[in-house]
Amino acid sequence: MTERVQIAGIDVYVTRFTDEESAAGQLIGQKSAVSRILTEIAGADYKLCHHDDGSPYIEGFKREISISHCKGMAAVGVGGDRRIGIDIETPRATLRRVTRKFLSEEESRRFTTDDDLLTAWTMKEALYKAAGIAGIDFANGVTLPALGSDVTTIASTTYRVESVTTGNARLTAASPK
């Protein structure tokens, strides 16, 4: 079953792996779950392609998409005609060990709990995908919104970024304002 959530102005379709997909392993499960969502969105004859930078698009589909997956789940975001980004992630211990690689000094003072770090990670990933700037410094070039805000600016573009919890995962979407 696919759940539809709207965050940051993006329709995000989320599904759990079926028992068969889980039994097939993470990579096969991801491909199958994403394929199920894409079939629902664009029809059985969709053709998934990738731009030179690796970002996905559906041939002939007039809307921007973003794809993400984590252990046992997959998500596809559908936006308008401007590049978007989504990320879905389940809690993992490694985030605490790599904090300095993805958070600025100021952000590391704000995001301290494991739940905060998961939110910060998915925000950074979604913003990175939406910005589409190759080689950008993840810790200092992708800036998280200030406390109490859902907007941030990267390379003179302002993005809206929002996060929700779905099941045991954090889902974040970022779209240009």
Q: What's the quick description here?
A:
With 177 residues, the chain is of the alpha+beta class.
Structure description:
This protein is an alpha+beta fold and 177 residues long. The protein is 31% helix and 33% strand. The protein has helices at residues 19-24, 26-42, 94-97, 99-102, 105-110, 114-131, and strands at 2-7, 10-16, 48-50, 56-58, 65-70, 73-78, 85-89, 151-154, 157-166, 169-176. The strands form 3 sheets. The chain has a 4-stranded antiparallel sheet, covered by helices on one side. A 4-stranded antiparallel sheet has the order 7-10-9-8, covered by helices on one side. The chain starts with a strand and ends with a strand.
Oligomer: single chain
Read across the widest sheet, the strand sequence of neighbours is: 1-2-6-5
- Number of beta strands: 10
Helix segment count? Answer: 6
Order of helices and strands: EEHHEEEEEHHHHEEE
Helix amount: 25-40%
User: Sheet bearing the most strands, described?
Assistant: 4 strands, antiparallel
Percent of residues in beta strands: 25-35%
Q: What average pLDDT do the residues reach?
A: 96
Radius of gyration: 16 Å
The SS-based structural class is alpha+beta
For the termini, the CA-CA separation is 31 Å
